[in-house]
Design brief:
Helix content is 29%, strand content 43%. The chain is built from four helices and six strands.
């Protein structure tokens, strides 16, 4: 059984709670889990500083989108005390035109410090899927 006070266990809980709030979307609720100076790097290298910015971006890219978690893994950095958390899975939802999608791979990489998320890097296959839909993909998905 895992100890809920263990920093690695706690960091995973914080990340999953943040992601659940982000999927509602509830950017204010998600913001409760982030530290001052939060840095989010979204797909394509887009820099954001709060959950409201990523919610606004997602509202333009998707009619709606959710995450199906497959794994949440974490490792404690013994030097800094930071916990590096990796959440992987698949996005599902609808594109703005109402076309459904599922199986869109993602990985979100977090740094949790003092029970707050200080940074997140987000990667997914959305751009590649959109290129394929437009017949511009260089290779099959």
């Amino acid at each position: 059984m895992t100890d809920p006070q263990d920093p690695v266990t706690r960091a995973c809980q914080i990340v999953e709670a943040y992601l659940e709030r982000s999927m509602i979307p509830d950017p204010e609720g998600a913001a409760a889990y982030v530290a001052p100076g939060f840095a989010l790097t979204f797909t394509g290298g887009r820099k954001m500083s709060n959950p409201a910015q990523s919610a606004a971006f997602n509202a333009r890219r998707y009619k709606w989108v959710k995450k199906r978690f497959l794994r949440t893994d974490a490792a404690l950095d013994p030097v800094t005390g930071d916990v590096h958390v990796y959440n992987t899975g698949h996005l599902y939802g609808e594109w703005p035109d109402g076309t459904a999608f599922d199986g869109n791979r993602y990985i979100d990489c977090f740094v949790v410090r003092d029970a707050k998320i200080v940074s997140t890097d987000v990667w997914n296959d959305s751009a590649e899927i959109l290129l394929a839909r437009a017949d511009l993909a260089e290779a099959a998905l």
